[in-house]
Every structure is written in C-alpha cells, then in structure tokens.
Amino acid sequence: MSEPPAQPRIEFEPHADPAIEPGVYSNGLAIWHTAHEFTFDFFVSSQPPQEARTSSGETVIRAPHRLVARVRIPPTSVFDIIQTINQNLTLYEQRFGQIRVPGAEPPLYPPDDEGSGPAED
C-alpha cells in the first residue's frame, strides 16, 4: 500500500494596496467585541490631555484621540494573534533588549541598593 501524498506547505504571501502599504502610526488601542467579532480600534493622540468639567460639574481629563485604523477579526483568531505577538515580543527582546515603559525606570541617583553608595564608617 502506498502512503497518501503529503499536504503541501502553505506559504503566506501578503500583498498590500499601495495606498495602505506605508501603514499608520498608533499610540493607543481599544478592543471591543460582539458575539461574532472582535474589533481593534487603533488611535493616535490628537491633542494634549486637558482638564475639563462635565455638564454635571465633575472634573475629568479629556484626551482626544483620532481613529487611524479599525480591524475586525473572528473570535477564533484572537488566540493566534496573542501567540504571534508573544513570539515577536520574545524575538524583539532577544535582539534589542528588554522593552522599557517610559517613566518606569528607577532613578539613576541616589542609588538604592546596598554597597553602591558611599562607604559608612
């Protein structure tokens, strides 16, 4: 008996419309869903945050953003996307080092660990 033919390997070849090929910059993301799809809304800050008052007198910080892209995917794709992002974050950090969140780094001075300050008598 002969073995069944092997399944061909799929090679993903993305092609973009030249109008969208450069992409867009985004520094914000909102994710929402319905029963049938997840929607990823990518935003960019359009103005600096400013203090404002609501009609009821509550003080809020308004941070206007502009929608630059909306992507809808089926729920079955969400875990694949998370896995792909995790794999790429690992590869990124292996190549460029740990990703640091601005403002989260400890101050350079004064040193806070033992033995790094002036010797005490």
Overview features:
three-stranded antiparallel sheet; 26% strand; two-stranded antiparallel sheet; alpha+beta; extended
Topology:
Elements: E1 28-33, E2 38-45, E3 50-53, E4 59-62, E5 65-73, H1 78-96
Antiparallel strand pairs: 1-2, 2-5, 3-4
Q: Mean of the pLDDT scores?
A: 87
Percent strand equals 25-35%
Tell me the structural class.
Answer: alpha+beta
Overall number of strands = 5
Sheet with the most strands? Answer: 3 strands, antiparallel
- Weakly predicted, low-confidence segments: none
H/I helix tally: 1
Textual characterization of the structure:
There is one protein chain. The chain is extended. The chain has one helix and five strands; from the N terminus they run βββββα. It has one helix spanning about 80-95, and strands at about 30-35, 40-45, 50-55, 60, 65-75. With about 120 residues, it is α+β, with helices and mostly antiparallel strands.
What is the structure about, briefly put?
The chain is α+β, with helices and mostly antiparallel strands and 121 residues long. The chain is built from 1 helix and 5 strands, in the order E-E-E-E-E-H.
